Amino acid sequence: MWKCDKCGRIFEKENQNHSCHQIPLENHFKNKDKAKELFDFLVKKINDEIGKVRIISIPCCVHLFGKYDFLAVLSKKDEVEIRFCLDRQLDNPRITESIFISSKTIKYSLRIKIKEEMDGEFMGWVKEAYFLKEKK
Fold this sequence. Notes:
By secondary structure, the protein is an alpha+beta fold. It has helices at 33-49, 120-131, and strands at residues 2-3, 10-11, 54-58, 61-65, 69-75, 80-86, 95-100, 106-112. It has one domain.
């Protein structure tokens, strides 16, 4: 694992290409009150049920870190898009996109429109993502 001296983000590969530029969190949620409500609810659930998170707001999205970067949130008008990686395949209609980023890691995307969608199944995936890099 490698930690960028400039921005403090942690990556799997030394000198991994990335942007150190951070922006205010509120920039992601301008005129997106529903997305902000869902984001705040998600962060609280993770903090309460899985482990503490640190929020890093970069121009493309908001990253959540435990010990490692484990989840990205993209704000939409009335929903949030959630992206996370697992080391196993999910066959679930909630998943809107899955991409192999290595032979052992798959990045998943899904959309959350209401708090109730952050149920036990979803939080199980988030927990797996939170601890994924500790398994390696």
